[in-house]
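Friendly challenge for the regulars: who can give me the structure tokens for this chain first? No prize, just bragging rights.
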Amino acid sequence: MANQNGTTSPDLREAFLGVYSVLKSELLNDTAFEWTDDSRQWIERMLDYNVPGGKLNRGLSVIDSYKLLKEGKELTEDEVFLASTLGWCIEWLQAYFLVHDDIMDNSHTRRGQPCWFRLPKVGLIALNDGIILRNHIARILKKHFREKPYYVDLIDLFNEVEFQTASGQMIDLITTLEGEKDLSKYSLQLHRRIVQYKTGYYSFYLPVACALLMAGENLDNHVAVRNVLIDMGIYFQVQDDYLDCFGDPEKIGKIGTDIEDFKCSWLVVKALECCNEEQKKILFVHYGKADAADVVKVKALYNDIDLKGVFAEYENKSYERLTSSIEAHPSKAVQAVLKSFLGKIYKRQK
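First reply, four minutes later:
Bragging rights claimed.
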């Protein structure tokens, strides 16, 4: 059972991991394709490398949310299996995005290992692997949800969220175009737009929307829930931007490069707001440069204007605002779902 701060019990996590093996084996025996040993081996290696390796937060959130929506009723084995399956569909979607993102960003590592496309035998075959990952979602949904009254809604949901995420990625990519580096176009509004579409929908709204559909709810009646979750997604990304610069690399598992990469980070946007003209000049000269000396100058400026304090204030205000939005919701079960999400991310260090 998910407790109030939203951690998943070990037995549900265990059950969740067991479902991955079932789904993988079904996909490796999909009768729509004539398999060979080589093709089976490739897909299995590709899946194991890219799908189950993360924190699994998004996938586990579906089971946690569904359980809270059922207000503590014991879930049947079938319900746990179906909620886990939808959770894994989100993890498959995430894997598809990340495999392609790493190629677009020319990244080297992901989750502490080389990016999939960096493996000698993989290279640009990773593009096709991404397409296959996306198609696996449709295969899984068809096999397990075809007869459900909410099947079409599930398909629509995954399609729409994928479109929103890809569109968010597009804004992000065209904003950081090489040769068009212009800090003056960065604003809180742009930051919000990128985050809302690139992260908010698939990381925060999608898991809860899946649970609501399974519980027989119509998503049109839950626009308020979507809005709170998108808000939470933005708060989460601001934390990410903060940790990229000020977090402990040991804890977050990666070394931040937002400054070097000229990212439209919440920190640089806030810095532009708080700076005097002299400080602005420093930012314009040093932001987005790969040299470590430039990064040091940007970080020193961040300290001069007390961005840590600005962030602490933002964090407290966001928490209060989100809490009052959640408490305005008429359903106690939905409140519990939203509070469990907020409990997972408030004041996180990684």
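Residues 63 and 81 are 9 Å apart (CA to CA). The radius of gyration is 21 Å. Your move, everyone else.
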